[in-house]
Amino acid sequence: MPQVAAEARVSEATAYRYFPDLLSLLRAAVMTEDLGSATRSDDPVERIGQAAEILGRAVLRRQGAVRVVVASTIAKPSTARDRPAHRFGLIEHALAPWIDRCGPTGRADAEQLVRGLALVISAESLFALMDLCGLTPDDAVAGLVTTARQMTAAAVAAAPTGPAAD
User: Fold this and answer.
1) Which of 13, 23, 39, 141 is most buried, by the most CB atoms less than 10 A from its CB?
2) How far is residue 20's CA from residue 14's CA, in Å, rounded to a whole number?
3) Cβ contacts of 23 within 8 Å, gap of 6 or more
4) What pTM was computed for the model?
């Protein structure tokens, strides 16, 4: 943290005021970097496809570290809460305009979609496609994107939206 504070040209106390530890700072930095490349479209299918692409590519860039984190939380489930929940931030950001349009009556459906997409848009799914199915990294990411888009399109078609949902 002292090096990060020096690079940012702030005091160490200021850095700790905003980020209680280095892990929280890194989470915020990674999330900001990845959300910065997200689409400005309001189409939830397009947005979720882009979120899946962003997460898949980020996992591939950090594959060694991500595999260690996944393996450690499998070996010691009590540490799972310390694991970054990057996928949830991306999914919720991607679906936010659609969730707002769903209103209170669509809230349960939206929450279920977020949980379902978290199973698809994940490092674990990416690794399963590569390691168990033999897909190339690019094909594995494409698989995440396709499945996430299909799930989202089905949920959007089935969900109540508009004035009746408000």
Assistant:
1) 141
2) 10
3) 82, 84
4) 0.74
User: What tens digit of pLDDT does each residue of 126-163 get?
Assistant: 999 999 999 999 999 999 999 999 999 999 998 865 54
Q: How far is CA 160 from CA 31, 96, 118, in A?
A: 30, 15, 22
Q: How far apart, in Å, are the Cα atoms of 118 and each of 14, 107, 114, 149, 165?
A: 34, 17, 6, 13, 25
Residue 90, both tokens: 């991306």
Integer Cα distance of 102 and 63 in angstroms: 36
Rg of the Cα atoms in the chain: 18
Q: What is the DSSP string of 1-31?
A: -HHHHHHHTS-HHHHHHH-SSHHHHHHHHHH
